[in-house]
Amino acid sequence: MKTTEMETVNKQELEEKIIQTLKTCYDPEIPVDIFELGLIYEISIDDNADVNVKMTLTSPACPVAGSLPPEVEAKLRAMPEVNNVKIELVWNPPWDRDMMSEVAKVELGMY
Fold it and tell me: Distance between CA atoms of 29 and 47, rounded to whole angstroms?
């Protein structure tokens, strides 16, 4: 196996672990994790295991705007496989209910 193929597999494995960690973070007003809510827009991992996450909140006035991104950052930094972490809070595109996964919609009784 080529080194680049191995790195790709490791990044895929790391991304899965990151997603599992993100699923431990909840918006306190909605009993669904932030990944299933569709608040995570992008996860980037470079060759040094530096992680960049683009995320949003349900609204700019969200009461956890000051605490949720640092919680996400702390949980990802605690992962032994991760080197550095950068959380980027973005508002474009604005979050809406259509971004939720089927799992989230079922949990919230939207079906």
Answer: 36
Strands 85-89 and 40-45: unpaired
**Is 79 domain-assigned?**
yes
Tell me the per-residue pLDDT of 16-47, one tens digit each, with 9 for 90 and over.
999 999 999 998 888 899 999 999 999 999 99
Distances (CA, A) of 15 to 27, 52, 73, 93: 21, 11, 15, 22
- Give the CATH number of the domain where residue 19 resides: 3.30.300.130
- β-pairing verdict for 51-55 and 85-89: parallel
